[in-house]
């Protein structure tokens, strides 16, 4: 560990030990990258996302209150409905004409159950394939939810709901990788490498199942937006960061902490997921057009090229903005980018600048390519693809800028194609994120 890195850790510790955290100072430090050591990133994210207040003295009581509240959500939205479902049709009351599976009444318990199942199946489908490049989400968590997995509890868990909703003509086999294999009993499918894994033993659950539970509860508490595909990509890096915290107590409560941080983050970006708001000033269409208007100011030649080829920002920037770049880079780089994103007071204006800089970074390829090549570059490989990995590393190994310098840096490098070392002398802004805090060690 370099002396500079040790100094940065000391700077964070100095700020975080104060009775009242100096938010501006913490934001300034975090923008340049948060060290992984000592759980600093987890703590800083919780403060920056307004989960923990600035007054240290209230942290213990706030955490206890919020974690108990989350346990109550589990009881009300998973355990109690699971008990009710298990009892449906058993008592005389449940077989009355007022409550049966074909009852069209929207307030019927059965109707609610079926609506919830539709949401749950979509969540289940998405979380199973979360971050497929690492095994973390398919592995068993060290801290399974005892409220859910207690063998004395006889109720329908989310896992059982998904399995029972699956078509009976399919054979469902669960393995420890957390993937459900479905095959027709009348067909002989080729052997799958997934069959090499053992079934998760009773009392265990995979990390993706924890994420599934978080998203299901969020959907129940927010019926206006419920669940939209892509939310899993937002909650994934949050949960991964908290679930790998070196502090065992905080790691144990990663599920509850992730839920509230995710809820706070979604409060800021939820308009991106509401289709009826797409064309409003707070909607995603406006933000995508803002990327192009910024590009027009910074690089007219590239802007005109994309306009000439009729490449609309909707073709690529929709994913970049709604998922906070989580699909454009590998998980360690996403976490590093989010350090800066969460730390910036105008975090989503900063996101627009980063998206613009990403375009300018690959300007030479875009200027030379035709429509098909450019669409593939923007949609398939993006900046995080294998061909752009060196460029991403160059971004992450330079010095921290002001947000306004990001597009200036991208423009300068896009035109000159120089290395970080060659560009470090540029006063106009080949400066991005700090060499000494950009590394994120993956726990697979």
TrEMBL record:
InterPro entries given in the database record: Rab-GAP-TBC_dom (IPR000195), Rab-GAP_TBC_sf (IPR035969)
Region (Disordered) residue spans: 400-444
Taxonomic superkingdom: Eukaryota
Pfam families: RabGAP-TBC
SUPFAM superfamilies in UniProt: Ypt/Rab-GAP domain of gyp1p
Subcellular location: Cytoplasm; Membrane
GO terms for cellular component: cytoplasm; membrane
GO molecular function, one term: GTPase activator activity
The entry's keywords: Cytoplasm, GTPase activation, Membrane
PROSITE patterns the record matches: TBC_RABGAP
GO terms for biological process, alphabetical: intracellular protein transport
Rab-GAP TBC domain segment(s): 35-345
Function: Acts as a GTPase-activating protein for RAB35. Together with RAB35 may be involved in regulation of insulin-induced glucose transporter SLC2A4/GLUT4 translocation to the plasma membrane in adipocytes.
Assembly with partners or alone: Interacts with RAB1A and RAB10; in a GTP-dependent manner.
Official protein name in the record: TBC1 domain family member 13
Record gene name: TBC1D13
């Amino acid at each position: 560990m370099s002396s500079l890195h040790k100094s940065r850790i000391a700077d964070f510790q100095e700020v975080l030990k104060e009775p009242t955290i100096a938010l501006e100072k913490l934001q300034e430090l975090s923008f340049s990258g948060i060290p992984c050591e000592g759980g600093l990133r987890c703590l800083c994210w919780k403060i920056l996302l307004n989960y923990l207040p600035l007054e240290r003295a209230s942290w213990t009581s706030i955490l206890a209150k919020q974690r108990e509240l989350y346990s109550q959500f589990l009881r009300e939205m998973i355990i109690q409905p699971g008990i009710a479902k298990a009892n449906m049709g058993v008592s005389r009351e449940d077989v009355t004409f007022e409550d049966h599976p074909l009852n069209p009444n929207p307030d019927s318990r059965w109707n609610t159950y079926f609506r919830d199942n539709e949401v749950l199946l979509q969540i289940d489908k998405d979380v199973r394939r979360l971050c497929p490049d690492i095994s973390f989400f398919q592995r068993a968590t060290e801290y399974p939810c005892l409220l859910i997995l207690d063998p004395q509890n006889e109720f329908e868990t989310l896992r059982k709901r998904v399995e029972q909703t699956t078509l009976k003509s399919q054979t469902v086999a669960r393995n420890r990788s957390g993937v459900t294999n479905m095959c027709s009993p009348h067909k002989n499918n080729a052997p799958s490498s997934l069959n090499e894994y053992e079934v998760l033993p009773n009392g265990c659950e995979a990390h993706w199942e924890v994420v599934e539970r978080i998203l299901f509860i969020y959907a129940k508490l927010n019926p206006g937006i419920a669940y939209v595909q892509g939310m899993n990509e937002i909650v994934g890096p949050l949960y991964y960061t908290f679930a790998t915290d070196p502090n065992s107590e905080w790691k144990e409560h990663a599920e509850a902490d992730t839920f509230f941080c995710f809820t706070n983050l979604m409060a800021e970006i939820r308009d991106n997921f509401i289709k009826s708001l797409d064309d409003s000033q707070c909607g995603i269409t406006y933000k995508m057009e803002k990327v192009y208007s910024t590009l027009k100011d910074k690089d007219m030649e590239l802007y005109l090229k994309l306009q000439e080829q009729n490449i609309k920002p909707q073709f690529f920037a929709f994913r970049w903005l709604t998922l906070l770049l989580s699909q454009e880079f590998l998980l360690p780089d996403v976490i590093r980018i989010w350090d800066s994103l969460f730390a910036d007071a105008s975090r989503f204006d900063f996101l627009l600048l980063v998206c613009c800089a990403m375009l300018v970074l690959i300007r030479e390829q875009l200027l030379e390519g035709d429509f098909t090549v450019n669409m593939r570059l923007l949609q398939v490989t993006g900046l995080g693809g294998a061909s752009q990995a060196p460029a991403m590393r160059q971004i992450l190994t330079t010095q921290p800028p002001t947000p306004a310098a990001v597009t200036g840096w991208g423009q300068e490098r896009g035109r000159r194609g120089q290395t970080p070392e060659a560009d470090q002398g540029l006063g106009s802004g080949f400066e991005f994120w700090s060499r000494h805090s950009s590394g994120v060690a993956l726990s697979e």
